[in-house]
Amino acid sequence: MNEHFNDIFVTTGCPTQQQLLDYVQGKLSAEEQHEVEMHLTDCEFCSEALEGLSNIKDKEKIPGWISEMKWDVLKKLRKKYRTRRKTENYISLAVIILCIIFLVLAMFWAYHFAIKH
């Protein structure tokens, strides 16, 4: 993946996606469950994520949906990044063309000025 897109899924002090899924599905050990619960008391973002995961009835499909959402986000970001780069390329090309036109006109003017004097 391109370095511009890696920042989306940076690691934090929050439980991993898999840990939250395992917590919702009751697959964590008592110690791991306690760690997640302690984190949830301080982290509103994770609490809301867990609440959303808890409301989903078919919990076995969650990993596939999350993976699909990540790819959708990456596709949109790549498209936006390409569009921005394309615009920057057109601006650079326009500046180069204007510089060339200016140089040609300056040389033309200098040549005619030198001939007349």
From TrEMBL:
<keyword id="KW-0472">Membrane</keyword>
<feature type="transmembrane region" description="Helical">
    <location>
        <begin position="90"/>
        <end position="111"/>
    </location>
</feature>
<feature type="domain" description="Putative zinc-finger">
    <location>
        <begin position="17"/>
        <end position="44"/>
    </location>
</feature>
<protein>
    <recommendedName>
        <fullName>Putative zinc-finger domain-containing protein</fullName>
    </recommendedName>
</protein>
<keyword id="KW-0812">Transmembrane</keyword>
<dbReference type="InterPro" id="IPR041916">
    <property type="entry name" value="Anti_sigma_zinc_sf"/>
</dbReference>
<dbReference type="InterPro" id="IPR027383">
    <property type="entry name" value="Znf_put"/>
</dbReference>
<keyword id="KW-1133">Transmembrane helix</keyword>
<dbReference type="Pfam" id="PF13490">
    <property type="entry name" value="zf-HC2"/>
</dbReference>
